[in-house]
Amino acid sequence: MTINAQAQRHHDELFPNHKSTLKVTDPELVEVFDNWAFGEVMQDVPMDARLRLMLQLAAIIASGAVSEYRVMLGGALNVGVTPIEAKEVLYQSVPYVGMARVFDFLHVTNEVLQARGIALPLPAQSTTTPETRFEQGIAAQKAIFGDRIDAMYAASPQDQLHIQRYLSANCFGDYYTRTGLDLKTRELLTFAMLAALGGCEPQLAGHVAGNLAVGNDRLVLIATVTQLLPFIGYPRTLNALRVVNEGAPALTNNASAT
Length: 258
Known about the structure:
This protein has 258 residues and is mainly α. It is built from 15 helices and no strands. Mean pLDDT is 95; it is low at 254-258. It has helices spanning 5-14, 22-25, 27-44, 49-63, 66-78, 83-97, 99-115, 133-145, 148-155, 161-176, 183-197, 201-214, 218-232, 234-247, 253-257. The protein starts with a helix and ends with a helix. It has a domain at 126-177.
């Protein structure tokens, strides 16, 4: 089995002294995957290691891959993702993938952190109260999506207005307003989760626009999808790229030259 030097170096940064049983049972697959995911992909589209790992953790949660999450969480902590950042990635996923999926990831996260001697619970990151969560959630929504939020409320049938209120108070008021991660990172994490879930292209399109509004441009979105590809596969990656191309079209050769 031949793992190229660059791929081996990146792998060792995440998993120092790790002895993979798959190198014994499935050496051909390990060679192909590691050379691609930890070599070619990372060379073609470089990204800050901490951000890359947080985005990959978000996508792995959305994919429901608990065992892979345990391994990658260890790698994330090894390259400097803080326990609070790791927990906030997980908390950010609750309104997007649901507590039924997040439940097992919570327990795995707590096990990994406690095994490293990290006391739980971690310092609180909430900034809202039951009285302020709706108002602050609306403000967070409008900071990302602008006047579209008023239009969504106006267009909502009366029997669905409670869902709009939940989006404002719960999804944004309870989660987006937390400290530990900034708004720009949270919105990119949401993009990563929706891309990994698949079947959420209308919501993904909305969050392409949201990412552009908070400063995550087309290049950032493509870099994110590229770094997720080894973990979510080509169909969901290509669907996400189609949505990015529709919401943030590439410059033509003529446009880029002007």
